[in-house]
Design a protein that fits this description.
By secondary structure, the protein is an alpha+beta fold. The chain has one domain. The protein has one helix and four strands. The longest helix has 17 residues. The protein is globular.
Length: 73
C-alpha cells in the first residue's frame, strides 16, 4: 500500500509505503535549475534495513525514472 503524505504541485511529493512488514518513506522534490532545467532530488528511508541496496537495482530505477520524466515532454 502506498500513501501520499505530502503534495505540493510542481514542487514535492512524499509517500509512505507498507509492503508486508517493511515500511518505506520517500520524498521527491523538483527545483528550477538554470534557465531551462530542473533538479530532481529523491530520498528514500527504509527503517530497520540492514543490507544496503544493490547499486545496479538503484541505477536501473533511476534510469527508469529519468525515462518516464523525459517521455512527458
Amino acid at each position: 500500500m502506498m500513501e501520499c503524505v505530502e503534495f505540493e504541485p510542481a514542487r514535492a511529493i512524499g509517500w509512505l509505503i507498507h509492503d508486508g512488514p517493511v515500511e518505506m518513506h520517500g520524498r521527491m522534490t523538483v527545483e528550477p535549475e538554470g534557465q531551462d532545467g530542473s533538479a530532481l532530488t529523491i530520498s528514500v528511508d527504509i527503517p530497520g534495513m540492514v543490507n544496503p541496496l544493490d547499486p545496479l537495482v538503484v541505477a536501473e530505477s533511476l534510469r527508469r525514472i529519468k525515462e518516464l520524466i523525459e517521455s512527458e515532454r
